[in-house]
Amino acid sequence: MDAAKTRRVKGLQNGLGVENAEFTCLPTRSSQELGWEHIQVEQFQHPPGECRIASDADHTICVSLAARPVRFLQIKDGKTHSSLYGKGDISITPAQTPFFARWQDDDHYVELRLNSGFMATVAQESLQLNPDRIELIPEFRLRDGRLEAIALMLLDELHQANPGGQLYVESLTNLLTVHLLRQYAVDRPKAGPKAVDFAGGLRDRQLLPVLSYIHEAIDQDLRLADLAAIAGLSPFHFSHQFKQAMGVAPYQYVLLQRIERAKQLLRHTNHSIVEIALLCGFNSHSHLSKQFRQATGTTPSAYRASIIVTNRPTN
What does each C-alpha distance from 279 to 113, 224, 265, 266, 273 come to in angstroms? Predict the structure, then answer.
């Protein structure tokens, strides 16, 4: 993934005429320093203006967060489009596609930049498609509830900035990639992408080593690619077959195991909550408390107190 690119924006004067002044527009939030693989997520807020963007290596998906509709003019792939963009509207710009945009109101959006090489790998390994024939189609303005939901989940993870959230981000990145391939890509010689059969789930000889590794490395920042490699599968195939075998996605299973480990340590040790958080793969006391409350309905401290009260001898 390329480093975050600064953006030169030419301001508009009262939304009517173009000024000569330019300014650099940096994201208000960026995943650049979080170590996310294959994807970069950034949140932007622009005053009225215009800019030209071209990315050689990344496909770009923009999802509007604007509270009020914004008048846009876009030019890409030799085509021009003008319309109002409201919250939830999405545009898709494939890699190596020059893109010009002009907007007449304050704009607010989240931008996902997905590595084109990673998409090619997923197309070949997970959907059995020839990546040399797959082409992502430019889209000026569309509505897609699932695509919007994935973008907002990535944005939420960006705001939380959890160092231990790598597995969750990788799962969302895989989900995003497959969704784009199935809905917005074409295989020129064929009618469309082939469906994938995930029947059967992981076999015991694949599943047991993965579960053992998760148990032994629960305090570490587990990665989907590492778990998939243990099972000898691509990350996409692994995610689907793991869910068939266990009933939950890999990141959900890992989270549940971390909560269970925390319960054990709360019951049987005198470790502080901070120590338990780190031993269970959470990056802070607050991170453990939030996930623990969501899973159990109570806080780690309250859970420990209830165990002490329950085990107190009676006279």
Answer: 33, 20, 9, 12, 10
CA 239 distance to own-chain centroid = 15
Q: Which pairs count as long-range contacts for 289-292, CB under 8 Å and 24+ apart, including other chains?
A: 291/255, 291/258, 291/259, 292/259, 292/262
Quick check: 92 and 35 in contact, CB under 8 A? no
Centre a 10 Å sphere on the Cβ of residue 234 and count the other Cβ atoms it contains. 17
Task: Report the C-alpha gap between 86 and 107 in whole angstroms.
Answer: 10
Q: What is the pTM of this model?
A: 0.67
Q: Give the residues across from 111 on adjacent strands.
A: 42, 62
**d(C-alpha 151, C-alpha 60), whole Å:** 12
Q: What is the pLDDT of residues 111-163, one digit of tens each?
A: 999 999 999 999 988 888 888 888 899 999 999 999 999 999 999 999 986 65
Say which amino acid occupies 282. Answer: F
